[in-house]
Amino acid sequence: MPARGVDPARYESRLAAFHLALARAGVPGLIASRAERVRGAPWLGDAGYADWYLVRDMAALGDLNRLAVAGEAGEAHAAVAALSGPGAGSVFALVRGDGAGRTAWWWLAKARGIAYDTFYASLPATVTLWRRQMVLGPTPEFALGGEAAPPSGVEAVRTEHAPVAVP
Length: 167
Prior knowledge:
The protein is of the alpha+beta class.
């Protein structure tokens, strides 16, 4: 998220340049990354940005963490970090779907006492489902992408996403 007073277009340009440099860095286990503008997420002050890093496994996070701040990617990271304000993060695992970006997400938690398999079965087979693995910030337990709404009786927040253009 850009710091207060930072021009969003300038921030987005640097953010896109970082993702481009990261793609060229050859991070082992990094499948793809993207940045999105997000509207409607209370944990982002209702508007902010989300960076998505699709990695092969948890071990790839170490390589990503190390190489994101080294070489060309490190320079691009420093440039966007200089314009950044407060942020939050979470680690999610892909449970179902293709991992591609969506223009809208439902953020929700399953009801207490419901088994994960039962919860998964209550969702349409066509949705993309991510499950939080580590709590690093205030994001809900699940991100549900696709056209279907969450099951009835589940409290959820809908967010709108738009890709940050890569130069």
